[in-house]
Design a protein that fits this description.
- This protein is of the alpha+beta class.
- Helices cover about 35% and strands about 25% of the residues.
- It has five helices and eight strands; from the N terminus they run αββααββββαββα.
- The termini are far apart.
């Protein structure tokens, strides 16, 4: 009796046949592997952010990137705010307000600190709400100029004609931030994502989305 047994072809075929599995199409935005996902609500670069919504967002639209200007751009305003906070103490050496009664001097100082607080709050809100969004369908530029005015522009991904990014200077190179310039065929011809972190990654995500959008058109999967 032989020591080696060979299964019949039918049985071997059954043994090698993998168990059938059901595959679901992977969402388009899951194909990107750019780093930068964070749960920090103050992040300037967030890949696939959590719980991000905006007024014109469609129900099935997925936000790929949320961008703000690099925090280093806040340093000049932070220095100004610091000087404004220290100004009353510095100016106390010089009796500028000595001609006023003590109570009026106190009111003047409190009024100055009120202006300082308003400056700090306005600077932070302008930075926080000035955002650039890249979704799986379009790019969105939200310009929050002040508490009473904002401007929102968008363009579909398939309208993008050219994407350029640039980093100029030692500071931008050191902190890895720059400008992403997007040329489109929409009503707004140019979108400028200014002083955003990782501009090379932003350009890569946009290029990938353009390729996928063209592939969807070829396959007739445009929604």
């Amino acid at each position: 009796m032989p020591d080696i047994f060979i299964n019949p072809p039918e049985e071997k075929k059954e043994a090698e046949t993998p168990t059938p599995r059901s595959f679901e199409p992977e969402p388009k935005f899951k194909k990107h592997k750019a780093p930068g996902h964070t749960h920090n609500p103050l992040a300037a670069y967030c890949y696939l952010p959590d719980n991000v919504n905006f007024e014109t967002r469609e129900s099935e639209e997925k936000v790929i990137l949320l961008l703000r200007q690099h925090p280093i751009t806040l340093v000049p305003k932070a220095l100004i705010a610091l000087l404004m906070i220290l100004a009353p103490s510095i100016l106390s050496i010089f009796p500028i307000l000595s001609f006023l009664p003590v109570n009026f001097q106190l009111i003047a100082v409190l009024f100055w600190y009120l202006i300082t607080t308003a400056f700090i709050l306005e600077s932070f809100l302008t930075w926080f709400f000035n955002v650039y969004l890249i979704t799986d369908e379009r790019i969105v530029d939200i310009d929050f100029l002040n508490l009473l005015y904002k401007e929102v522009s968008d363009a579909n991904i398939d309208k993008i004609q050219d994407v350029t990014y640039k980093m100029a200077g030692a500071v931008r190179t050191l902190f890895n931030y720059g400008d992403v310039l997007i040329q489109t065929a929409s009503e707004v011809p140019n979108f400028d994502f200014l002083a955003v972190p990782r501009p090379d990654k932003v350009a890569t995500v946009l290029q990938d989305l353009r390729i996928e959008e063209e592939q969807e058109k070829l396959e007739g999967r445009i929604r």
